[in-house]
Amino acid sequence: MAGEPLVTICGSAGGDAELKFLPSGAAVCEWSLAVTPRVKVGETWQDAETVWYRCAAWRQLGESAAESITKGMRLLVHGRLKVRTYEHQGQTRTSLEIDVEHVGAEMRYASVTARRVERHPGEDRSPQPAFSGGTSSDPWANTGTADESEIPL
Fold first, then answer.
1. 75 within 8 A of 134, measured Cβ to Cβ
2. How far apart are CA 10 and CA 13, in angstroms?
3. Half-sphere exposure (CA, 13 Å, Cβ side) for 142?
4. Distances from the Cα of 54 to the Cαs of 17, 31, 34, 80, 105, in angstroms?
5. 120 pLDDT band (50/70/90 cuts)?
6. Which of 22, 46, 66, 148 has a 20 to 30 A CA-CA distance from 114?
């Protein structure tokens, strides 16, 4: 649906990402994202109420997210915000959901080693080593050893 606001949110994964495949074969990865603002009360900082978002990443992004996202991981999530209301045991409730377009680790709290993932239908989807033997000037190639000086910025 068009018209949903685009948001970028920094928060912590509430649990490990869960990957599912629809009957059509499309992959969808879901996880919860907790955002707890800090507020100043007098001379001290305190945690405000935590806001929870349900995140969903589709297809290739979903498969990569499922391999990477674990509980407690700090994430930057960008996507379309959807607000849904529903009835549960006679009460109206609201759910905040993000249809994820981009997701990555928040590098203030972690270092990240990126590797290119190429998938083909029917192949083994277990993680592969990022680099193995040989050399290459292409840091995304699956050959050679890369260090920070070889990765283009």
1. no
2. 10
3. 7
4. 11, 6, 9, 12, 17
5. low
6. 22
| 15-24, 32-41, 144-153, range with the lowest pLDDT | 144-153
Any idea of the CA torsion for 103, 57, 140, 110, to the nearest 10 degrees?
30
Task: Please tell me the pTM assigned to this model.
Answer: 0.70
In angstroms, rounded to a whole number, what is the distance separating the alpha carbons of residues 43 and 15? Answer: 33
Q: What is 6-112's CATH superfamily?
A: Nucleic acid-binding proteins (2.40.50.140)
> What tokens appear for 145 in the block?
């050893």
Buried b (16+ CB within 10 A) or exposed e, 6-32: eeebebbbbeebebeeeeeeebbbbbb
User: What local confidence, expressed as pLDDT, does residue 112 receive?
Assistant: 82
For the chain, domain boundaries: 6-112, 114-153
| Beta carbons of 35 and 50 less than 8 angstroms apart | yes
Among 62, 101, 82, 75, which Cα is nearest to 15's? 75
Which DSSP letter does residue 43 get?
A: T
Q: Alpha-carbon distance 57 to 6, whole Å? A: 14
